[in-house]
Write a structure and sequence with these properties.
Largest sheet of chain A: 2 strands, antiparallel
CATH class of the largest domain in chain A: Mainly Alpha
Structural class of chain A: mainly alpha
Strand content of chain A: 5-15%
Number of helices of chain A: 15
Oligomer: homotetramer
Number of domains of chain A: 3
Helix content of chain A: 55-70%
CATH topology of the largest domain in chain A: Fumarase C, Chain A, domain 2
Chain lengths: 378, 378, 378, 378
């Protein structure tokens, strides 16, 4: 079925401009229906739709939500918005056309994406809180398992497994707070902004906003894309630590065989591929953020088609972030901590600062104590 | 005077590792003294320093703050921390050494940087609020100056100068909110975390934290570097708009000659260099953020010297961001808006959506109205 | 069928580590078979395989190449390498196992990717040369169509359509040269490097290298990822130019309706989405390059599983780059150049430099001529 | 003295647009003079300057080159070009003005930068070749010092110090080749392209080009910015390796005390700060490249002032790259290799692949040999 603006576009250009939208939009189907339901109710209130029209539109839209992946979005539909409108027009004729009154696809898609993001942020926050719980168990169990603390990748001072894992969960707590901040900033309803220049028709934007559970009516997209980034700052650091501390040379940690991968040529290998991939996936998310960021750069005000290409990096960042949070949780729940290796690693030298401080307690200036201890033979 | 740990380092290596710290640290001098004052008061409370020692240390540190750029940080000092300690030791002998008790340069510098950042965020927020005021004046003055709204860089619908500038200030309001969020996350006192592994000595970290005006005691650095980025999303977009709308072909805006630059070969040129540079500086800040980001990536837990190199991108982002906010304000206060050009640009075609909506009000389904208007001859 | 190293891995971890490899590897199927054919012939020469074994292996591998997408790569296979080995073992029993002698998947996949890249670079170069031809037609047809040349986005000096499009093709010529440089650097055979540490078995790496058409035997991956980037420097600049010069306000160019897209709300719109998407896709490629780059950063020597994640950005960059080169060519072949608009745009002021130079020819110092002309009334 | 186009610009705007150019341009002083000398000789040939005028101009320009840092570039001069022209006008009056005939600052600065880059690439290549020599000494000395080869950060197969350092020098050899490729692409003379639209005056661009030692006349800037990046791929990897292998837990390498740094709180520390900084500086260069890249993105054709801001990242990348190559060389010349630690690390398990291959030589299929060895008790 043809696109809304009835025209015979060049096939190659069409394929190029449509891209993978008809696939990517599966992520938005539910949210676009929810947006349309709110819009329909509002159009009814302002007298564009009759009660009956609104009811049957809402009913069909709910059917689509239930159909889930059984609702087809064909490449010829271009995207979920046209697919839905074509479906409604087929079922309800004119009404299916009426629902688009006072709405541009620009605000329609922004609404769907915003709802998608709000849901995604909620799920990521759950995964973060869950990971914090797991870390708490480890720190409790190993509150007194001593390991060296490292600076410059060299043994520095006495520390514990608990201190190491506590640092991760402290970071994650700030991440959770940051997720709330981002949520608050994107919690604004774009529905009714039309092509970005309003519309010569009275729309009750407040009504749509509250029906959709937005905190307020407004337009803003530019913060949405930092999601995922901060969670990974801790995930990839944790992977880097675990990879190092799992080498035969350190040996503080190891993974059970069922979490490792073998080599096709080396019989003895048990590789921590999962940690390497988590470390690497943080780079993918950085790249998605970078794409979204670049695409927005220097566009003049008003909608530019460039923004369509932000969809994929956006969906992927959410998916990869949530996946890695869950896999990390699985890894931690199976992590083997080798107490003896940890203990053995706590060699004499890491207690030198303490020795200097003992002298301080005896009245030495720290710098003098420092020198005296430094000059002592190993 | 030699570095704290008395050693004869290789000269080239020393120059390489010190880098520009002795220059960059001018930004931190005041904040490092404030940190040391708090630390001294705390050491006095826990009995490491006598009241007299503390008083004279605080007195000398306040002198340094007053000296400002007259206080020398020599390359041989490596950084402001050593310069200050050497100065104190010279003036007060042993006491100058004692103040370093229970403190590592790792937590000392983090404290100074955190205080620097908190101050920087405050100043940037002021500049943002100021720019919002300026935008308000323009929108008020031009609430009914019509211009076309653009999508896909093509005329789309009727709009106004007010709507255009309102979008900027809406973004800036969210930026201001976001600055508060970042401030809240970094508002934690690192003083007392020593090398990151605590210290075998009772320190009153709460006391230092409240003396320094931190909200709580903790350790976190990873969010600090997104500052600057969001403000520029609007600044560079505004520059892109103004550059386009100031071309002879659009002509909506122009800059007074005193804000433009000429050409060395073309007598007629009046170039909007200032807007081009604001547009470009957003890329510099993106680059600084990128550097800070990369440097932190995949470092194992614990201090790594790599982090020293975050100082410069950090200081520069703050400086460039604040400068561009102020210059943009200056440009807006001098911007010439050519009402006639704006009016002339509002051609027939941009009212076609309104015409379609008139039909809708007569009962047409929007899609049908759309087609009828579309088929009307220009 | 189970993975090579016989083990019962955790299902979630397996799904996570396998990722989309079983899909992505469709790009490598042909090249992995070619690599195996060369390896089999070499194993035969050094006496690990008999002539008969080699013949039947080569025969089956050629069958797989012919099967193309009919050859299944199941998720349980993990990747194309295992899928192929399982297939061979099924068909030929022991021989299917023997072919893996003296080869690690590390060098096996590197070989396949290298062959894929060499082919991709060739195809991109063809598209570039093709685009240069198209540009030549335009420049020839419009060698005297005058338009203003712009600096600082302001009219600067007299120029022509030919000069504008010539700049693009000059860039593309350098791109073509650069593609050759990259090709030369990656034209090295990794086959036989095993896990990166050679192998305790005499392998004739020279033989494999020449069978596969590599220039020499060696190991290098780090340049491969800049492909795509340079071509886009011109494509996105060209899009930016065409978008600007196609605005109603400039009007030098326009696209035939069949290459434009309409609006769902604005009846009059004919949007150049295709140009916006080309502009934006350059950002995607920048992001893919960025991902590949980050993933490699700071990995210690030797294979790290992180590298698996470079596959997708690599394949995508090649695909997007080639696609955009072809679409741009299509756009240029349909571009409408509005001669009158171009002529009308060549206003008096852009000839002021020429006037100054006329005075120079009369003996004035350029600076004085410049001032005299500048002071002349418009 | 006033800028060329005689005007009273707003002071703040002037400071903002000039930025640090008057400082940065110290890097270009010599090259801009060389460009002007070639331009003067050409102007003489085409009859714009008399032999006497040309001679005195060339003489003064050579004086400036000799003056080096004693030649002042004042902020009021804006950049080195104006400073030089003001100086010449002061000394030679009218002639000083005449030399600017047929030249825009756009092509003038591009010429100076291009000459700067060509020189910089030469020096970097020298440093690369030098480092390759140093690596050769190490590999020769340690051709049989065994260490484990690592994959997935786990011991994998037997390797040697020679193999490890050979990989670095192989990479550096490709870097050297790549430097030549970049050199070849930028080896084109922009002098005479004026503002990018040529000039209505006969200029002998060939003459300037050959006087300046360019291979050909043309316009291209877009490749220049990848310099530095590839060298760092090996430098930062080497640092990552050395940092890991220098931990107490690995202990293969160590740095002499004079190349390490101490801790202000931990008496025992000897930190490899130099390696951490080299690792981190690779991120700075990535950031500079990123800035240069972003700044160029989506600018329309023709000069845009944005490009001015590429100067600093360009100069810095060259400086940082050369510095790190030299420091790395110094580190390698002082690196201590602990043979015993290396030997001790070569544990039984890394020989399992060899054992499997022994079975292969006895006729086993590799997969069967693999399984048999795998099942052997440790």
């Amino acid at each position: 079925m043809a696109k809304l603006w009835q025209k015979e576009p060049n096939r190659e250009i069409e394929r190029f401009t449509v891209g993978d939208d008809f696939i990517l939009d599966r992520n938005l189907l539910k949210y676009d229906c929810l947006g349309s339901i709110a819009h329909a109710k509002m159009l009814c209130k302002i007298g564009i739709l009759t009660k009956e029209e609104m009811d049957s539109l809402v009913c069909e839209l709910n059917k689509i939500i239930k159909m889930k992946d059984n609702f087809a979005i064909k490449q010829s539909d271009e995207d979920c918005h046209t697919a839905i409108e074509n479906y409604l027009t087929e079922k309800l004729g004119n009404m299916g056309k009426k629902i688009h009154t006072g709405r541009s696809r620009n605000d329609q898609i922004l609404t769907a994406i915003r709802l998608y993001e709000k849901n995604g942020l909620k799920e990521i926050k759950l995964a973060v809180l869950n990971l914090i719980k797991t870390l708490a168990c480890i720190t409790e169990k190993h509150h007194d398992t001593a390991i060296p603390g490292y600076t410059h990748m060299q043994k520095a001072m006495p520390s514990t497994i608990a201190m190491l894992f506590n640092a991760y969960s402290e970071s994650l707590k700030d991440d959770a707070a940051f997720l709330d901040d981002i949520y608050a900033i994107i919690d604004q309803s774009p529905l009714g902004s039309a092509a970005g220049y309003g519309i010569n028709l009275y729309l009750d934007r407040e009504m749509c906003s509250s029906l959709l559970g937005f905190k307020k009516v407004q337009y803003t997209t530019y913060v949405q894309n930092s999601r995922g980034k901060f969670e990974f700052l801790v995930l990839s650091k944790m992977s880097a630590d675990l990879l190092l501390f799992s080498t035969a040379e350190f040996g503080y940690f190891s993974l059970p065989e069922k979490l490792t991968t073998g080599s096709s040529i080396m019989p003895q290998k048990k590789n921590p591929d999962v940690l390497e991939l988590i470390r690497a996936k943080s780079k993918l998310v950085a790249g998605y953020l970078f794409q979204a960021d670049l695409i927005q750069k220097d566009l003049i005000s008003g909608y530019n088609r460039d923004l369509q290409l932000i969809k994929e990096p956006l969906f992927r960042s959410f998916a990869v972030t949530e996946e890695c949070l869950k896999i990390t949780d699985l890894v931690l729940n199976n992590l083997i901590i080798n107490k003896e290796k940890c203990k053995a690693a706590c060699t004499e030298d890491i207690y030198k600062t303490d020795k200097a401080l003992d002298l301080v307690k005896k009245g030495f200036a720290f710098r003098d104590a420092y020198k005296q201890i430094k000059e002592q033979p190993e």
